[in-house]
Amino acid sequence: MKKVSIVGSGNVGVNSAFYIAESAAANVVLVDVQEGISAGKALDLMEAAPIRRYRTMIEGSDDIAAIAGSDVVVLAAGLIRAPGRDRSEHFQENAATARAISADIARHAPDAAVIVATEPVDAMVQVVVEATGFDRLRVMGVGGILDSMRMASFIADALSVSPRDINTLVIGSHTSRMVPLPFYARVNGVEIGQLMDAQTVGRIVDDTRRAGDVIVDLAKRANAYYAPSAAIATLAEAICLDLHLVRSVSVLLKGEYGIEDVALSVPCKLGAGGVQQIITLDLNEEDRQAFAASAGPVRALFATGDERTGTR
Q: What sign does the CA torsion over 94, 126, 89, 28 have?
């Protein structure tokens, strides 16, 4: 069976392990620097197996070498933002953490694909690509897939329909400058513009951009973790089972969409090894400009980086 290692045993890491176990896509190893936390949470998850009926193994370790032989490594370590603060709040600290873990990934799991969940996710994708030396298509961030899930949830609520019937697409940076694309939103093939008025569509777009902030503000010191974990599990399953799923993920762009050396979410075909194809959309002028503008917050982080993290 395939192997997925998750570095970081907080809420996102542990819930990702649970979802992956239920998918039966891979065995899971949880790794955390805090002694005992991964082993304890892995034991708790395995004690749920008899009633949840998953047959996958979940193990915990405080030794990063436990990621050896992984097909996928999930980076879920780092500081989380406080209510009222931006996702970039802990860029310096999390970039340093990501670089250190990336060196371990390159050493112990040189053939793995990497799923990045640490915030700010687009910038962390670039950090991981540079620090591991991996091909950029082996590193992807949980940005657009999560934003697309949230948009689908809002559409389902507005129309009182099953979320399973809804397909959505959000591209760009995982910031307030993200670019939801209502034209690509469908309810079992029907464009949402035929099912709701423009004002409702506009409200859903605004709600999608604010979704993460609303959760943090309501939950105070807790970030979102159920939906991000579900997104991570979907990506891990696509890679481990070579599913050829098309999802919006953050990848380091090299000329696609006219963007150079910035990681942004775009639709990609996902399978064995990671991103198998970056899909280029024929965007209208308004969406093209919005997409280019969404790169601004990511570029700004590196423009103000410092030598402590090795950012630029």
A: negative
Peptide bond into 120 cis (omega under 30): yes
Among the residues of 191-284, which ranges form H helices? 198-219, 226-240
Active-site option among 90, 108, 174, 244: 174
242 and 160 within one domain: yes
Q: Same structural domain for residues 96 and 130?
A: yes
Q: Are residues 116 and 124 in contact, defined by beta-carbon separation less than 8 angstroms?
A: yes
Number of domains making up the chain = 2
Can you tell me whether residue 223 is helix, strand or coil?
A: coil
pLDDT by residue, tens only, the chain of 312 residues? 999 999 999 999 999 999 999 999 999 999 999 999 999 999 999 999 999 999 999 999 999 999 999 999 999 999 887 766 666 778 999 999 999 999 999 999 999 999 999 999 999 999 999 999 999 999 999 999 999 999 999 999 999 999 999 999 999 999 999 999 999 999 999 999 999 999 999 999 999 999 999 998 898 867 899 999 999 999 999 999 999 999 999 999 999 999 999 999 999 999 999 999 999 999 999 999 999 999 999 999 998 654 333 433
Strands 139-141 and 2-7, bridge-based pairing = unpaired
Q: How many CB atoms lie within 10 A of CB 286?
A: 9
CA dihedral 299, 304, 310, 312 (to 10 degrees): 40
106/209 same-domain check: no
Quick check: 38 and 30 in contact, CB under 8 A?
A: yes
Range of the domain at 19: 2-141
Same domain, 153 and 193: yes
> Catalytic site residue 174?
yes
Flag whether the pTM goes above 0.85.
yes
Q: Do 133 and 151 fall within a single domain?
A: no
On whether the CB atoms of residues 28 and 4 are closer than 8 A, the answer is: yes
Residues 26 and 122 in one domain: yes
